[in-house]
Amino acid sequence: MENRLYGYAGKIARINLTDKTVTHIPITKYVPKYIGGRSVANRIFWEEVKPGTKAFDPDNKLIYMTGPTTATGIPTGGRTVFTGISPNSYPEQYCWSGIGGWFGAELKFAGYDGFILEGKASEPTYIYIEDDRIEFLSAAPLWGMLVHPTQKKLEEIHGRGVKSIVIGPAGENLMRNASITTSNDNVAAKSGFGAVFGSKNLKAITVRGTGAIYPADIPKVFELRLKMGEPYMRPSPIIHEQTHGMDQNTIPVEGGWLRGQVACSHGCNQHCCRLMMNMKSAFSDERINQVEKCVGIFAYGFQQDCSWTPIMSFETEKNHFLPCKMLSCEMPEIDVSDPYVKELFDKVPGDTVNYWKPDFDKGSVMMDMCNEYGIDKWDVIVWYMTWFSMAKKEGLLDELDFGMEADVENEEFVKYFLDMITYRKGKYGPIFAEGMARAIRTLGKEKFGDTIYKGRFSQVIPGKRLDIPVSLETAWGHSYHWQGRGFEGSIPKPGWLATSLELMTSTRDCQTVEHHHQKYEEYLKFKDDPCHSPVLVEGVVMNQNKGELKDSVTSCEWQSPDLFWPDMEAEAFTAATGIHMTQQELDEAAERSRLLFRAILIRNFGRDREMEVNAIFPTMQYPDPWGETVSWEDWNDLVDLYYNRRGWDRKTGWPTRETYEKYGLSDVADELEALGKLP
Amino acid sequence: MEDNTARTYGNHIVQYVPEYSFCAGCTSCEVVCTLVHDGLVSPSYNRIFVDRDNRSMIHTVLSCQQCSDHPCFDKCPKKGQAMKIDENNIVWIDEEYCVGCGLCAKACVFTPSRINMVRSADKSKRKAKKCDMCRTRPEGPACVQWCPVRCLGTSENSVATPLGPQEKPMPKEAK
Mean pLDDT in chain B? Predict the structure, then answer.
């Protein structure tokens, strides 16, 4: 009993699809030094995946990890993470993708903290895990099935209590932004790992666990349940809504619609996701329920970009709250005694963009197709569909014959197009199935990507037309997100400089895990000269490190960081594992994880300063709603500050030996030195 | 499914109608149940069950209805020792004497059975897990206390209309 491992399940399964073998790695090989989750995955990838490996190669390893708080009852611990080479990054790079649901907890009940998927099955396969038993089963009866029918079929085969992660036809057909789906429509979508499943002939993983996870400090777990996220602890009735959307996207719904709130992950004390009930299906006359998160709102109507309120990014002790409470409509009352209250809640309206008029049924159909085919909704709503809207208005589609009129206002076209790319039909299906970044380059980027859309108008400077390209591409093959232009672009320059710095050193849209948060008093210090402010850089580092912790401890984007409870993650880690970890020690572990991520990018994907500055800088040359951009000199000054803070060489962007050694990674430094990749 | 309409029940956990509060499917009830009773989290130990529906995402909470005629107790080969009845007519399990035979779980009149079974290669660890309404907790049932959306209550102190024991919480379509 005294030797009990608290928090962790104890082992990682190495699952080889080529030879259908399973071996075990003790989790203690990696923890507590690498915490759990993404941090452990980074170490495994560093040790096992060689440079030159491509996303769809059998040698690409898809690593799935839970955290030490998963299945302990600590709120948000149900979040888990995949890592591997992403087919959706442009160029392909090492990436991660978080996912909630109950699968991770069930996997731990079966005795595993995670698994490494390697190789490639010779025929369609799914994996069934029941405690110590891991089986490779034929997925022939499942191949081709939509996401929800696949989940249902697996329950029919293995019993209602099993938990599954599955792909739909998009993943099977190697669509580069295919998702992996689990319960409550939770997805790992951004990295396109559904296509990596498909490339390995892997349709699903189903698990049933009967074991137990032991949190070390149960009174503390209960304390955290009461404190983390200030849980609602009030009834959450189903609401009969009369309208949908916000701002210019508001749409009256005939007969109204029903909204419930559901949790995203096992044992959480929040209910962030909107359940939209009795909605129109794309596939039958039967009405369906589906989950909506923030981006989904824009499927229904997209005439105005998302507005921004400073409290979303910059907070005071008197006024700060979980962003997810905006989706569940449970925001706390504003504390008017706050001296900054006026500034904090001074809403900045999003640009008028006129992508498509509100259409409740069409939005539901779009969402349903993404859910069932297993496609990243984000790319569909923010990128494919906006591109069609803008490109058509700029006359770019006249010479492209899609087989029917390309009209995003038409539900039939939305269905036609999503079907076309999922099944790679016709001339353009295979092109767009490669994701927008690659499709635009195939069509010709200068014309089909960089042509200016003339329908974007600022509401900050009323009537001012602002340039934006028809393809909302930012760095690494992803679309704009909280970056001053494109989707959710109303954040002012100090904010989008921070998010752009976060994106520059990443491999994907990282705002889903690193929404920039900083104290409002700090914002006041850098708002007038953000490119030369160590305070802004410190905020970027803090948000990035918290991002590592969210995917490692685990927690979630909506609960962390709590700027006024900075050791929340350390308390959660210690309560789960019994291993005392101070905030400083956990921050060092986050730095170590981040350094490993950096080392992987440098060794396997040639990352250096020139590469990342050139990837990000052009994206900031389109004006923000105030007409602002950033100069080459100012941006590079900010990059210098950031590299200095991180202990990275300013010329190359490579961490120094001293930095690696400071965080216990001298072996990493040795290998990079041998490759000539130490400064 | 058994017809239990004529059966009478003691004080038991109820799930309220969604118009009062909608189950978020967070499984906090399952989690806190095992934390307070067993000091762990496990699907083999919880005495309350969230019947999850991946398609509708409407989840139903299943729990022991505390049948007045307690067929589970009657089938226990060590009744009086392993299964006992307290002053409130709550059947509870004294795990020191429970041998984990599973007869009580099989005798449950509901499907799925509301009695959980810990299965283990170690026979001494095989135990039945049945809701005892947290009979020794001054705060009452932990699942009720810790439900973040207050969709659970007790039948004797309902603050809203409960669902029937087999009733799906699907609301009527909006018209």
Answer: 92
